Queue: 4 jobs
Job 1
Amino acid sequence: MTLRNRVSVAAAVGVLIVVAAVSSLLYFFYAASLHSRVDAALVDAAQQASSIATRIKQSAVGSQSKPDVNKPVTVGSVQVQLFPGPVAAGQPTPFGPLNKGDVAVAEHDQPAYFANARDGGQQVRVYNRRPPHRPGRWAGTHQPGRERR
C-alpha cells in the first residue's frame, strides 16, 4: 500500500470518528431536551391531580353511579391516573402492577420519580408522585407516543 493510500485511509477514518462523535453528542443533547419538555408536561399534569379528582366527583353529583376516579383521565396530551384510596403493591396500572417503590412514594417515604415504560409495544415516559397533602394516595402520569429513545 502506498503512502498516498495510507494517508487517504487514515483521513477517512479520522472523518468517520469525528462524524460519529458529533452525531452522538447531538443525539444525547436532543434526548435530554426531549426529556425535559416531556417531564415538564408530566409534572404539570400531576400537579392537577387533586383538582381532577374534585371535578370527577362533582360531575357525578346527582348521578346514581359512583364516580370512578381510578380511570385514566387525559389532560392535554398527558394521561393521569389517580389512586384515591390506600395504595398497595400489586394494584394494576396500564404499565403493570404498582410496586413497593410506588407505595413508598404514596406514603411519602420516597420522592416522586420518572421512568420509562412500555404500553402496547410503545415506549412512554411515566411520572409517579403522591398528590400534595394526601398521604397514602398515588398519581401517575404518562405521555403516550412522546418518548422514543
Note: The mean pLDDT is 80.
Job 2
Amino acid sequence: MVKTGRVPSLMQGVVEIIAGVFVGVIWINIADQTGQGVFRYFHYAGYVVILIAIVGGSYHIYNALAKNRFSEQDVVFSGQEPDPFSRFLDDDELNLQTGNTVNKGDNFCPGCGKDVR
C-alpha cells in the first residue's frame, strides 16, 4: 500500500484545522459587517469552511495516529495490512495480473478468462 508518512499527515491535519478555522472566522466577521440584502446569509459559508476544515483535518490526524491507516493506493495483498474502510465494501479480491476484480462466486478471471479455482 502506498501511504503518506505519519508526520506529513499529522502536520497537514493540524495546519488544515488551524487555517480553516482562522479563514472561516475571518470570513464570518467580514460577511457580518458588510452583509446587506442577498449577502446577509453569506456568513454561513464561513461555517461551512470551518466544518470542512475540521472534518478534513481530523481525517489526516487519524491517518497519522491510527495503527491501520487509510491507504492512497492499494499495492499489497490485503492480508498484510487491512484497509479499515474495506469492511464497509464487498469482500472482492483484486487480480494483480490484469487489474480486474475477481468476485468470490466467479470461476474465471474476467480479464483473461483463466480458471481461478
Note: The first helix runs from residue 6 to 34.
Job 3
Amino acid sequence: MKPESTSPGSRVAWGGLVAGLPLGPLRADPADVVAPEEAGSLFNEAFFLRLGFSFIVGLAAGFALKVAFKVALVVIGIALVGVFALQYAGLAEVDWSGVELHYDTGADWLGTQGGALLDFMGRNLPSVASFLAGLAVGLKL
C-alpha cells in the first residue's frame, strides 16, 4: 500500500491517524526478516552451556516422557483389545464394577499427590519454571 499523501507535513499514512501520528505497516517486509540457515542451529553447544541444570533435566524428562507415553499407549491399547476379545469370545469375564473401584481409588491418590506436587512447585518456582520450559521443549522434540 502506498500512503495517500507523501508531502513532508502530511499526517495521513497507511491506516490513518492515531493521536496525530501516522500509522505504518503492521507487518515487517518479508525481505527484512532474517531466518536461521537451518532449524538445528538453535541447539548448538553454546545454547546448552547457557541453560541451567533444571532446563536440561526438563528437556531430558520431556523427551523420555514422550517416548514412554507412546509405548504405554500402544501396550495399554493392545491389552484392552485383548481383554475385550477374550470377553467377547466368552473365555473371560471382567468385573467392570471392580475395575471402576480401582480406578476411583487411583484417581483419589493421584489428586492427593498432585496437590503435594503443586505445593513443592510453589516453593521452588524459579527452578520449576526452568524445568517446565525444558519439559515443553523436550515434548516438542
Note: DSSP finds four helices and two strands in the chain.
Job 4
Amino acid sequence: MDNGNTPLRATVVVRNPKGLHMRAAYAVAKVAARFRSAVTIRKQDRAVNGKSGVSLMTLAAVPGSELVLEVAGEDAAAALPVLAEALAAPSADGLDRLLH
C-alpha cells in the first residue's frame, strides 16, 4: 500500500493568455496551500515549490508552456486534480471556488 511518498504526476498546459503571471501564480499557490501534501511544479529542468507564488513566477511559464505537477503526501490523490485544474485555468478569476 502506498504511504503517500510516491508522487502522483500530471502534465498540464498553461492556458492563461497571460501565462503564469503574478496573480495566477499566487492563486495557484493559495489553492496548493490548502493541502498537506508537498507540491512541486516542474518546467523542463527547473522545479519549484507549488505553494510559493514567488517560486511559481520564476518558472516564466508563458501560454502553451507544459508543466509537470507532482504531489506527494496523504492527500495527494485529492490534490492532484484540483491543482491541475488551477494550473490549466484560462484565468485566475474563479480559482477561489477551488478553495472550498
Note: DSSP finds three helices and four strands in the chain.
